[in-house]
Amino acid sequence: MDTQEVIRKQVTDNPVVLYMKGTPDAPMCGFSAAAVQILEACGADNVATVNVLADNDIRQGIKEFSQWPTIPQLYVNGEFIGGADIMREMYQSGELHKLFQK
Amino acid sequence: MDTTELIRQRLTALSPQGLEIFDDSHEHAGHAGARESGGGHFQVFIVSDSFEGKNKVARHRMIYQAVGDLMPAKIHALAIRAYTPGELDDINATPEAQERNSEPS
After folding, report:
1. pLDDT tens-digit profile of B11-61?
2. For labelling, which of A34, A70, B9, B13 has a CA lying 20 to 30 Å from the CA of B70?
3. Which one is the CATH code of A3-99: 3.30.1360.70, 3.40.50.1000, 3.55.50.30, 3.40.30.10?
4. Min CA distance, B30 vs chain A (Å)?
5. Strands B40-47, B18-23: parallel, antiparallel or unpaired by DSSP?
6. Number of folded domains in chain B?
7. Is A69–B56 a contact, with Cβ atoms under 8 angstroms apart?
8. What is the pTM for the complete model shown?
């Protein structure tokens, strides 16, 4: 399977996926740490995280997948939502909570 | 030319009515990612008519595209706040903003 297919499978098999640097317990970048905190504050559970630092193919591939050059990246139900700034704005406006209400 | 000026030049392509660029690199000097790429951390606050009718993802993509040649060599991380002039008026009209603006400087 090539990297783009791997990513497509990750974001469709899991309802919420965060591509980040490091892990939720040990984020390796302030923006990734903020993304994790925002998801926690929204009460999002079942968040699958992918540490891009552990897989260079994914690290490069995820940038092509959404034509988005930076990490973190949030996907909900297969759809690219945005990076850390967009997550923060959507959290503040209440839009992000709505994504996790079912 | 410093990177802030380079970013400013690139973003003129979006005909901004308002543009502020902050260099936060000193706050992040030496962390793993910064060492790796050598690029700095920047914040961009930009107001432009060209964001009209575009969602946040589209706006950020426009900005990334404009500064793309600077990433990652010059820019390691870019925090973005992108508004249309109309949205900015709405934000400035909130009670919180009024209070903030009325504080003694």
Report:
1. 999 999 999 999 988 876 666 555 556 788 999 999 999 999 999 999 999
2. A34
3. 3.40.30.10
4. 12
5. antiparallel
6. 1
7. no
8. 0.85
